[in-house]
Design a protein that fits this description.
There is one protein chain. This protein is mainly alpha-helical. The chain has helices at 2-62, 69-84, 94-118, 122-126, 128-163, 167-174. α1 crosses α6. The longest helix is centred in the first third of the chain and has 61 residues, at 2-62.
């Protein structure tokens, strides 16, 4: 009779240990999984800040009558395209992120062309409003870079957590999948060519 109770107690203790292990691991996976959309929202917020600065930049530049209208139009169109693409943080897959990045890279290219053209207008380069906007854009680009780095760090932390043993077994059983990193679009490593 005592052996029966000992076996039951041992099995109950083992069941409790397994339950605690799975519960703790599951909750940690959920926590790490929830951090990724939060970090993605920082990325989107930084890009939105840049998009919000562009109308002021365009207005400042428009004040110079002989400025190239085509360049301004390209910037406005690129901004419109970039702000029209939103990625749901709950549906972060590589295709959605790549589409978002391509629109943002189009805006970056248009801004780069604008800044190169601005070099021909010393009065504009000396304009205090324009200088302030340039500084704000530079700080915003830094924010974007930091937000992307933080997003990738959260993805790395999550992926590492769910891929290590024995958590990888729990992750497979519980449906936790590897997340995609934020990567530059193809060709981003090459500087854009600007023709005069």
């Amino acid at each position: 009779m005592k052996k029966k109770y000992i076996v039951i107690i041992v099995l109950a203790v083992l069941a409790l240990i397994i339950y605690s292990s799975v519960k703790g691991t599951y909750n940690k996976m959920v926590t790490k999984d929830e951090i990724i959309p939060e970090k993605w929202s920082y990325v989107e917020s930084a890009y939105q800040r840049r998009a919000d600065l562009i109308p002021n930049l365009v207005s400042t530049v428009k004040g110079y009558a002989d400025f190239e209208q085509e360049t301004l139009t390209q910037v406005i169109e690129a901004r419109s395209k970039a702000t029209s693409i939103n990625v749901d943080a709950g549906n972060l897959n590589s295709q959605n992120v790549q589409q978002f990045l391509q629109a943002q890279e189009g805006l970056s290219g248009a801004l780069n062309r604008l800044m190169v053209v601005v070099e021909r207008y010393p009065e504009l380069k000396a304009n205090r409003s324009f200088i302030d906007l340039q500084e704000q854009l530079e700080r915003t680009e830094n924010r974007i870079n930091i937000a992307r780095d933080e997003f990738n760090a959260a993805v790395r932390d999550y992926n590492t957590y769910i891929r290590t043993f024995p958590r990888n077994i729990y992750a497979n059983i519980l449906g936790f999948e590897k997340k995609e990193y934020f990567q530059a679009v193809s060709g981003a490593e090459q500087a854009p060519e600007v023709e005069f």
